[in-house]
Amino acid sequence: MKHNKLNLLAILVSVCIPVAVQAHAADSLRYAFGRMSVVSSTGTAVPFTDTLDTGKPGVRVVLYGDGTFRYVKESCDDAGLEVFAECWDTLAVNPYPDHAPVPEEFSIWIVDTLDAYCCPRRTTPSSRFGLRHGRRHQGVDLPCTEGAPVRAAFGGRVRVSTSMTGYGELVIIRHANGLETLYAHLSRRDVVPGDWVNAGDVIGLGGMAGRSTGPMLHFETRYRGRAFDPAWLIDFETGILRHRLLHVRSWYFDPDSRYVQSVDDEDDIILADREDRLKEERRKGKDSRNQEVSDNAVGKYYTVRIGDTLAKIARNNGTTVKEICRFNGIRENTLLRVGQKLRVR
């Protein structure tokens, strides 16, 4: 019976690979050379029963004991990307030339359906990004106990692992999307340059090396050497990743620019305003030219819930994944977030 169940699941995986299951989206997975373990954001082990090939290079399926499953990607699948060769320096915090241009606006995929995330430290920051005592503070300080494990936020390759004035014991990881995350004031480093790590891997222990007022993790996010407020990505008090697709504006890199929720939620506000306007038009029963407004003209929206996939949403709303993608300008493998509004009709 178990054999038949696995065979059926393998068939489903081979045809459904673009639509990822979200049941364990908060977990971080470590996969290397045939060894697998799953670690939650709190550091506790999550049991799994088996793994399956998918027929897709670098992609496997993990079967969990509760009957759910998840697609995972081998970290070494990214090894040949050009991003891991450009301006690669194992000693410099910023290896990019100062004159390297950055567009006024651009988007970065932070995680997709096959990548994981782990909050490096869930706590209330003791010091935030921006000018501090007249000097630029390029990250956030996250209080911790001496010797507490520090985990990689995303998968990537270690570029720097060294002792440095100010930062103390320092680790910098470059990720496949061009971002780099920086972890400082460590009491111990457990990785060396060139190591591949996955989200949730322990890369060192918390401490107070360098210029530090107490045990803490100094955490930075940088794009092409330019620091921006990590709060644009992570709500450290809840541990939640704010964005899977981050829309970056050039002013994020200003020395005193901090996360602003009203701007962060800009797209959701636009969607909400549009939905309110359409509902009002529907209530009146007429458009601006006094013509009847049909259901098709107004549109129908759906709010994403825990466990939803595009296939499930399409099935429950009498439409197709392709139509939902067309309405919302997304792809079939786009990772959904709880509370996101999608047009379905």
What does this protein look like?
- Mean pLDDT is 75; it is low at 1-45, 268-272 and 287-298.
- The chain has helices at 2-16, 261-264, 266-284, 295-298, 310-316, 321-328; strands spanning 28-32, 35-39, 48-53, 59-64, 69-73, 105-109, 130-132, 135-137, 140-143, 149-151, 156-164, 168-174, 179-189, 196-197, 202-206, 216-223, 226-228, 234-235, 240-241, 245-249, 301-303, 341-343.
- Strands 9, 10, 11, 12, 13, 14, 15, 16 and 17 form a nine-stranded antiparallel β-sheet that branches.
- It is built from six helices and 22 strands.
- Helices cover 17% and strands 30% of the residues.
User: What's the order of the H and E elements?
Assistant: HEEEEEEEEEEEEEEEEEEEEHHHEHHE
Query: Biggest sheet, open or closed, and with what strands and sense?
Result: 9 strands, antiparallel
- Choose one word for the global shape: globular
Helix content bin? 10-25%
Over the alpha carbons, how many angstroms does the gyration radius reach? 22 Å
Give the overall average pLDDT.
Answer: 75
Terminal Cα separation, in Å? 40 Å
Structural class: alpha+beta
Tally of contiguous helical segments: 6
